[in-house]
Design brief:
By secondary structure, the protein is α/β, with parallel strands linked by helices. It contains nine helices and ten strands. Helices cover 34% and strands 24% of the residues.
Amino acid sequence: MLRFDSICKTFHPGTPDAAVVFQNFNLELQKGEFLSIVGSNGSGKTTLLNILCGSVAADSGRILLSGEDITRQKEHRRSARMGRVFQDPSKGVCPSLTVLENMALADRKGKPFGLSWGVEKRRIGQYQQRLERLHLGLENRLNQKVGALSGGQRQALALLLATMTPIDILVLDEHTAALDPKSSENVMRLTDELVREKQLTTIMVTHNLKYAVEYGSRLIMMHGGAIVEDRAGREKQELKVSDLLTVFNAISVECGN
């Protein structure tokens, strides 16, 4: 369903600041798989997501999504087939627009824009029903500017917006890192519900080992641009946070930290 094939990426090549991130990196996801990615800073986690979404170009290699080679496809073209939620709650919403306007805008994703009304009144009831599942009361605050919402409320809304239209893959980039514990739990609950309900192929990068272990059907650990652990099925189900910490510590010792 998704395949990274021999991906290579070096930042600032040919300079003293050259940084090799990937050398012949390979990864394949099956349709409906929920992959959690953990790893130390600089291991290549976010760069991998940026290469997938098109905001960073790979030096060589291929990216196949649903059998189509999207390696040279522009970022805006890829975005029509992907839902992405960022660490910053403001990046997945339009803060200057209302909750209702954000919902209507997300509902038009991938569709041509014309001179018709931005908000279709017949859709408002459906938007309210979707907002009810957030348990944040936003269904009664449709005319509230999103910029006035809390970080947790914005991130929950961003997740809902990212999955409103059919997508090939959901990309979660540290989407609970900037939230307080209660908001993080709510966003992860919603994430799990949406992924299961819509059977979404999902990649989640996180530093929260508890979430990485608790959620998803597969987990990989990255280090130095390579996969050093890959657990799926029963191995993933039996995985504990302490197991991941043991691997992290072993890597730290090996690197002299």
